[in-house]
Amino acid sequence: MDTEAQPMERDRSSRPAGTEDTSDPTEQEDRSRFALVPRLAGRLPGGRITPTLLLCLVFLLLFSTFVLQPFQIPSGSMERGLRIGDRVLVNKLAYRFGAEPLRGDVVVFDGRGYFGDAEYIKRVVGVGGDHVVCCDGEGRLQVNGRSVDESAYLYPGDSPSTVRFDVVVPDGTLFVLGDHRSDSSDSRDHLGSPGGGMIPVGEVVGRADWILWPFGRATRLARPDAYARVPAAEGAHG
Question: How far apart are CA 165 and CA 179, in angstroms?
């Protein structure tokens, strides 16, 4: 997994003419990419690996590859809920047996070819068939004609979006936004790009279910109630 800072251009129509993001790799950019929690390090006593220890290491590797994997938050694009340096636990089985991401889920996805050459974390605000609009008369997102109150997780002082959009999410894809809207490069930035800023469900690595570290902030990341009353898209099944 790529853990180095990568430059990313933004193409928001609302940005003043003649301005663009810098490509300074030391700056925290508005994307939520991940780095693996530090790998096991240190020397074994006597420099030997016993069969039992080898078996344990293989089990941990398989468990991390296919079941649960920790990731580190490198930017502020998901504040206030997820802060720079937080370690989150991603459930890689959440969508592997017929289940699909739901509105409100916080997901990790492979952004190569869509957002950039990295993995990202964002909140799902639209699933296949949804009509997502910004914004209603009170400045809130609308999904399938229902206004969504995002105050429970939106970064304080941020509006739902300064970029206007009116999109229908193609089947099998997701429309995703960061919770810190003024510091997030997300589906809004790629509306005019191939794919229209949508992320294929097949590129989702898993669902972020827990904050593991720091211990004082350890908590389960529950799906918010904001989308509970959003009706299904027209023609959707279930």
Answer: 17
